[in-house]
Amino acid sequence: MKTRYLGIFTITVLLQFCVLNVRASSSAGQANISEKPPAQTPETAKVSIAIIDFESQAPGNPELGTQLSDILTARLSIYDQFQLVERKKLEDLLREHQLNLTGMVDTPDAIKAGKLIGARILIFGMAFAVDRDLYIVTKIVSTETSQVKGTLAKGSLESNLSEIIDQLANNITDGLNKWTAELLQKTEKLNDKVTMLKQRLEGKKLPTVAIMISETHANRLSAAAPDPAAQTEFKKIFKEVGFEIIEANKEELAKWTKDYSLAGVDIVITGEGFSEFGTRINGLVSCSARLEAQATKKEDHKIISTERTTKRAVDLSEAIAAKTALQAAGRELAIKTIEKIAEGINI
Fold it and tell me: What pTM was computed for the model?
């Protein structure tokens, strides 16, 4: 009987939070590679997002709701199309207007709060357990049109919680990219630099690329370990834009590092990344990452681009926080490198 009631409760919550997904379609024109990227307009503006603390009924971690909002804020800040409302600003404004929002806030109250803090989209939700599974359901609410969308992440209570949070963050990011036109104004599109670069280079003959970025994380409890998060993100971004990535085994990579002409590609990207533990607060771990990357033409060893950046991220585990920081650094430098390649090479 208990299991039956739990099942009914699960269905009720899921129906409350998750609604039918409607695909928003938009058309995009092509621009010549020699042209400058289009200026940011209201149709391609960043979308301001506020993440309210989730409500948690999951056993064993009373801080999970707050931790989820902190981690999601860090994860979504990776993407240039989103502008996250600062946590302190959010708390100050809610306190000033005597609003105490939780993950189960009613939609009208959420819209009112979102307008007060200048957020066009609010994200909030709830985590709860059914038998041995953890569910995290999310509401994505537009403060402009009152449209509501939902996502769901699920995993075993015995599994690594960071894996469920990865699923949650990916579902929310995919949903935001898919639903923005419907949630906001029909003609509005996200200022997604990767999509804009893909449109800009569409139909052009792109150079082949080899990417060689060495990365390590300085673990407090063990020796430094390889961590290819930035290199993986570099490859992902380059492939999304349309570049052909030439892979190699360790022996070939060692030869390529000494002599780029052996790579058999047009451009070689080399780099070095490093991440380390920052601090631990309220059950969350922060890590910092430093990444440097250089793009070089194979034929004459002419340097096309030299970039560097530092990023920070938080998570429940040190390993995931370090990976997220390196991923954020890799995404930023990959986009900058592609922009330099597009400007400096006649392709």
Answer: 0.71
